[in-house]
Prior knowledge:
This protein is an alpha+beta fold and 280 residues long.
Amino acid sequence: MSDQLPGNWSRTESPPADLKLREVAAAIESVTDHRRRFGEVFRQAFDEVLDGQRTGRFDVRGLSKVEKTYIGTKVEIICQSAFSWPRGERMDFRIAGHEVDCKYSKTTGGWMIPTEAVGEQCLLLWADDIRSLYSVGLIRPYSELLGSPNKDGKRQLNPEGRTRVYWLLHQAALPGNLLLHLDPDVRRRILANRRSGQARIDELFRSVTGRTVRREVVLAVGRQDDAPKRVRDARIHLAPEGIVILGHLAEDRATARQLGLPEPVKGEWISTHRPRDPTL
């Protein structure tokens, strides 16, 4: 199925006419950082299922069928926590006082609507870790907007149904999967040392400069506990090479800002070659 849905509602159009759906949409959009939160929901879900610290994996294409299915469960759990939505009595969440079912699909248009969710408000979630994109939409899937049932009685949106999705966020930027999108030669160099996790982390910060490195990446590369300690050791090892590693502390963030680099937040680092100005 194509990842492009025909006739998507533009974000410049009016909210849905359905009053309850409009109230749910308004409640979500009123969260000032909802874009960031949704992006982090998907990033965390992918990272937790990949389980890089124990497996060294970084590509969802290598997951088993069961694991890929579990991504949807993770998304639902993390989403509820991220937005502090209470559990619904009949559906997954209560948002703005309304029951809302949560549906995740790895393909746009692939959401499976069970019988009990027909005519209910549904939060449609999609993310693609390869393309670093995600979408969040709302729909009330009445029967006439659904196709034929599968053997489990679940139904997908039909062409008309796909035009009725109200997109809160459509193909927004997903926080990137650093290891996945590295140049293959650089990635092989980082992961080449099979004996020493610390050596792999040193090579990570040596080879990937000027780009934010998240804690989960450090854990996947090192496959060891205590990412901050491994980064502190990397600082010592790389200092003679003129490489500095900046973290989330105010002094480091100020240095990053002066150098025109992204400012790391807690759980992030960025390496760069030591600036010529000794005061930086």
